[in-house]
Every structure is written in structure tokens, then in C-alpha cells.
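Before a colleague's protein record goes any further, I have to sign it off. My question to you is simply how this chain folds and whether the C-alpha cells agree. I do not need a full report, just your reasoning and any doubts. This is what I was given:
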Amino acid sequence: MTWTEVGWPQAVATDLEVTFEPVGDRTLVRVAQRGFERIGPEAARDREGHAMGWKELLGWFAEHVNRKESA
């Protein structure tokens, strides 16, 4: 899918790929976001910020799933 944000140049988007892989009784989720060079000079900053954001978001999901499994 594509991903765009307010403040990016009009009609500019990155490509977002989310994959799910079974690992034992769990699921490995991978997020790959590409195409930041389309944004322009802010690309490096946005790439770093999104990498941290995806890591944090996926961490929240993992915590939620782990709490439900422990209950």
C-alpha cells in the first residue's frame, strides 16, 4: 500500500509493505517502508522518524497481544 502525510509534497507517497510470517505459535510482523527519496530534502529525517514510529507501534501491539495471552 502507499503512505502519505500532511506536509509532504502533493501526490507524494511512500510504499508500505507489511508481511506476516508464522514462527512457531507466534506471528512475525515486518514493516518495510520505501520511497522516502520522493519526499525531498526531509527524506532522511522522515525515514528515521518512521522507523522509530513503526517500532513503537508494533511494540504496543505485541504488548497488547501478550497481555491477552497471559489473561
In short: The first strand starts at residue 2 and ends at 3. Residues 2-70 form one domain. The chain has a mean pLDDT of 91. The beta strands are 2-3, 14-23, 26-34.
